[in-house]
Structure prediction request, 368 residues.
Amino acid sequence: MRVREVGLLLGLSLCLLTGAMGQAKKDDEVIKIDTQLVDVPFTATAPAGTLLKGIKLSDITIYEDGKKQEVVDFSTTTAPFEVVLILDTSGSARNDLLLIKQAAKDFVSSLRPGDRVAVIAFRTERTNNQAFAVPEVLSPLTDDRAKLAAALDGVKTSNGTPYYDALQQVAEKIFSQRPAEEFRGRRALVALTDGVDSSSAADFKFVKEQLGQVGVISFFVKVDTRDFFEEALLGDCRSSVRFSAAQIRRYYQTINSKGSRMEKATNFCQLGDFERLAVSKRLYDIANEEMNELAKGSGGRVFPVGDMTEARNAFKSVSEEIGTKYTLGYYPSNEKRDGTYRKIKVEIKGVPAGTVVRSREGYTAPSN
Prediction:
């Protein structure tokens, strides 16, 4: 009788232990799923400007808010990329449409066979005798170079710049789904633009958050269109190039935020030549600030160019950088889901003194 009781007790204990181990295993799985894997793309550039290859996992240390993290995933420069190419064909770019198409084709051809590309451009729509520009996805992500060439042949000019709306489409249409494993942490935006938005429904703050959430590395081939724009801006308001209502609002919002009590103009014809130039300068300054903010925060770069010849060289530099990007991943030691911004720093040993490491600078933690 006693032996039987002991046997029953042992059996019960084993059942409880097995159940507890099963529950612990289940809990561990839930924790791993709930914890956000942070992907950090980075490049290392030697003082001479050469992009470094051959970096090993053992060379790398990563910190989040100053605390060392354990790297659980590492992709070398041979891993493929997904790239969204945005082509701004408004304003002065209309005169360079053929050059833009050829530069874009050369860029696509320079990417590696496994890289996938999507194309977004602007086009003009007309409703009730009113013309307005909209972004259009000319090709989804594909590695079929013939399809991409055909899509680029379809690029047209536009009479406006829905630049923020195009950035929104990158997040909501092209990169709306989680990437396949081979592309995780290896998604890029490459935009040929002056960055001066004229007609978007979205705003910069909103699309910046969206791009951050999907982990896009931002590269900009920044075309200098300011002289062309300002030459057409002055003189008779009925025949000159005009600011859009959105641009005038954006100008006054930034001026007012600095404590100015300047009297607001409600339409373009109320602006004199001097104030038109002031508005133009501020709009281009905003565009420069925004492009640099997106590029620096994501580990990308801005390439300023004066014409399409320089743009082709800039595209080549972007292609080289994409081909030398590393990506590492880690589960943050800080598991709090508090919605705070966490700073990231990547250090590499064994590289020449003065080497510059460009990486994703941080991320916003999920919140409950």
User: Anything to note?
Assistant: Residues 1-18, 20-34 have pLDDT under 50 and may be disordered. The longest helix spans residues 2-34. Residues 82-322 form a domain with the Rossmann fold fold (CATH 3.40.50.410). The chain is about 40% helix and 25% strand.
